[in-house]
Amino acid sequence: MAVIGAFCVSVNRELCINARMPGKCATCAEVCPYDVYSLDVYTGEMYVQNFNACVGCRICVEFCPANAIRINPAESEYISRYPWTFGAIEEIHHKAQTGEYLLRGFGTQQPTPNFDMITVVPSQIASTAPLDKYREQCDMEVIIGEEKCEQPTHLKLPFLWPAMSFGALSKEAKMALAIGAAMTGIATNTGEGGLVPEEAWLSRGYTDKELTNKKWEPGGYLIIQWSTGRWGVSVDYLNSGDGIEVKIGQGAKPGMGGHLLGDKVTEEIAEVRGIPMGSDALSPCRYYDVQSLEDMKHMVEFLRDVTNYQLPIFFKLGPSRPYEDVAACIEAGADAISIDGLVGGTGCSPDLVTQGVGIPTIACLPPAVKALKDYGVHHKVKLIALGGIRNGLDAFKALAMGADAVGFGSAAEIAMGCRVCYACHKGDCPYGITSQKPELRARLDPLEAGQRLANFINATAEEVKILTMLSGHCRTIDLSTEDLRAMDLNTAALTGLKLAGYDRPLPMWENGNQQLHDNGKERK
Amino acid sequence: METINAKNKDLKVVNKALKEAVNGQPVVVKNAGHLHGLASGLKHGEVIIQGDTGDYLGVLNDGATIKVTKNAGKYVADNMTSGVVTIEGSTNYGAGQYCYGGIVVVYGDAGDFTATMNKGATILVAGDVGDEVGTYMLEGDLIVVGNAGENFSNYLIRGNVYIGGKWESLGNNTRVESLTSGDLAKLSAFFDKHGIEANLTNFKKIVAASEKPFY
């Protein structure tokens, strides 16, 4: 709702099929998630009845068979009407009329501190010479759980798909993610909604359950999520993957659980989640079977035990107190820790939580790295950065800030075809990604979407490779904050990176971020 | 009958020995009070734990029969999918949470948050239970012979709750009903099977008031 009134919708009536032949076309009204268009049931004529509701996703533009629609950004109300912008006014009207707060899908809608004000430092004469992308090698492999597990996860590239559940996503989208992972040697994640049976073999690159026909090389990995709702969880479920992720929180709604409404619990989802059809699937905000860090240690121990000490244990954190939270995960025995920043997305969340709760991704990384270094496990316990990472440049910056791998959640949905209409919660995704309706799901071909995901990963890997080699490194693990500079005071203050030009960290970061996180107490 | 003495041994060693031993004959485990997660994820077999045990007993149990002769700690039979877990003494917080199936029988008392998010198991407590018992239950049966604390069966979504004693307060989305003949037959057969004496005339049944308790 925050973007309301920010776009102008114009229809060229000379091109519009409906304008020439009323009743013959209603594509725009069918696909628009916000009822911007309205069809007169008596005359069959189409009207732009609610142009203020447009969020600028341009799905109608893509679907319009006559190419008659144009969506243009309106003049920024942030200059002329702030703080009483049209969006703020409409939000109050919505609450006044319905008594309900706003719900929506996807991630943040307004600017938050991000990677854009960080620049990459190339190599010249004073530092190691740059490397040749065509002739020389760049090692991007990440091994998770090398020290503690008998079967570590060897990611071919420092990327993975973060957890997105079956229920939030369609079965076809889950299959596409698995195929994309198999084609590129990265990992996909079941999310908390149980295992879609096909994921188990598609993610490894096989087209059949018996694992006889390997179609996609090099084959990927499947991370099994263990979360607060425990949907479809059994010993067999835990042993069907290559790693277990203990979900503590997520970037879009840290401190909150999930809630799949009864109406969306279809027969298929009910079976995978192991619950009655049509019953609410409420994921609590915390584990009912963990009351202390001591309990969490025992949980990690029994998870290792039921998987015969083979599989790595991942933790997924929301953006809260990165230093303390990462330290707790290390103490609990994690092999890898994902930290999901403020920009992270979700299928459904209260607007104000997605928008206003949590620490930006760039500000999560320095304290998380500090915790890993204080415990002497940086790059041993792997750090995975999530939340608003869009391309190789963002990924490179996260890796240089100390992460071992990055996850593309929102970007993966976009690679499958999503146009970001913020309406995942409605279950009417026109691309069949976040919908359970058969007619919409039929629009998403898992093979084609899987290939698009693989293409996206391959292109992004090339981008990271270019940046790694031009800064004089042949391994992504060798990247450091020395390869980055902040371009404004704000970013330098949030991250502790050297400020470009000034060429050293801001004075408050001169002794590292020791005082910021110790509160005068000594830590390990 | 094979016996495993768990004294001074860690979970990995004991559970590994247990997995190898549970073929055919019952296996006895002694001195396991310090272990959290004992007999986890077993698919078959019979385990008798002599004495007390720690938290997460029989977690993710998938078919084994586990008996504890004294008391068990927190989260007994957490996330069980099938099998039988019997505690002859009492248990602490959160017994039978997240269970998809199987049977949990506690002959003594059970703590707060027992049977939270039960998704299909039968959980029987012969003594009293604490607060918030049966919260967010989705399927299955919870049978309490004694008394319950506050917010009993809070936000019940589906499933049946039977209680022989009194409760301090009932949770949201609950409706009290009298037992049908089918319920009586089910309960008496269950009590006979597990050797529990209870007066069925006092029992009440609690079901979800609405199938959609949240919106």
Question: Describe it for me?
Answer:
The complex is a heterodimer of chains A (524) and B (215). Chain A is an alpha/beta fold and 524 residues long. Chain A is built from 19 helices and 20 strands. In chain A, helix 11 packs across helix 13 and helix 14 crosses helix 17. With 215 residues, chain B is an alpha/beta fold. Chain B contains two helices and eleven strands; from the N terminus they run E-H-E-E-E-E-E-E-E-E-E-H-E. Chains A and B meet through helix 8 and helix 10 of A and helix 1 of B.
Topology, element by element:
The complex is a heterodimer of chains A (524) and B (215).
Chain A: E1 7-11, H1 17-20, H2 27-31, E2 37-39, E3 46-48, H3 59-63, E4 69-73, H4 77-80, H5 86-98, E5 103-104, E6 118-120, E7 142-144, E8 153-155, E9 159-160, H6 171-184, E10 187-189, H7 197-202, E11 221-226, H8 235-238, E12 243-247, E13 258-260, H9 267-273, E14 281-283, H10 293-306, E15 313-317, H11 322-332, E16 336-340, E17 349-350, H12 351-356, H13 361-374, E18 382-386, H14 392-400, E19 405-407, H15 410-416, H16 438-441, H17 446-470, E20 484-486, H18 489-495, H19 514-518
Parallel strand pairs in A: 9-19, 10-11, 11-12, 12-15, 15-16, 16-18, 18-19
Antiparallel strand pairs in A: 1-4, 2-3, 5-17, 6-20, 7-8, 13-14
Chain B: E1 2-5, H1 11-21, E2 27-32, E3 46-53, E4 62-68, E5 82-87, E6 103-106, E7 119-125, E8 139-144, E9 160-163, E10 174-177, H2 181-194, E11 204-208
Parallel strand pairs in B: 1-2, 2-3, 3-4, 4-5, 5-6, 6-7, 7-8, 8-9
Antiparallel strand pairs in B: 9-11, 10-11
- Span between termini of chain B: 54 Å
* N-to-C CA distance of chain A: 46 Å
Any low-confidence stretches of chain B, pLDDT <50, length ≥5?
none
| Rough outline of chain A | globular
Structural class of chain B: alpha/beta
Radius of gyration of chain B: 17 Å
Main sheet of chain B, how many strands, which sense, barrel? 11 strands, mixed
Instruction: Estimate the helix proportion of chain A, in percent.
Output: 25-40%
* Amount of helix of chain B: 10-25%
